[in-house]
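[Q] Does anyone have a clean structure-token version of this?
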Amino acid sequence: MVFLEALVKAGWLGGVVFLLFSVGCGLYVLSEWVEEHPRTTRRLLWYTIWGVDAVLALMAFEGLSIWRVVVSVCTNHTYALNLEGFPLVNLGGPRFLGSCALAVGNHFLWFFYFIQRLSFPFSQVCSFMFFCVWLVPLALFVSLVPIDTALPSAQTVDRGKTRQNIFKTLFSRLAKADDGQQHPQQLHVD
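[A] Here you go.
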């Protein structure tokens, strides 16, 4: 039985690693598509925001807290402010930072609401949190393209390239950091 238990734990570990790798690859492919089709993406984000607002309005008729629904709708339209210069966004700007703060606040607002009312089944809480709280900020995060001059390493960025997806930026920086390290056998003494 010890071998079987170890095999089960190794299977779970392998499954979790595979799942995380698959999600990462999926997000990268999605961000590539977003970078190639910014107008379509902007339109889809607008439709998503209005769709989530409609679902929230219906949930208010189902008996959810009306003031929390109003806060969530206002939060969604704060996210929409990031669509004005879409797909470019200033990661240090007040719109983006305000959206991040409101995303965290909105999450905790609904989290504490559902904690106080344990009558909701777990599946309903997860579905509500995904569709009404996390969908719009996650979609915006995947579709963001930072303005290169707002990044800390703006002096090292090629000026001919004005747009790069946020995932490409992170991966290219990690690759540059890895390539920039000199290994002991590569050091040359003059």
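[Q] Thanks! Anything notable?
[A] The CA atoms of residues 43 and 83 lie 9 Å apart.
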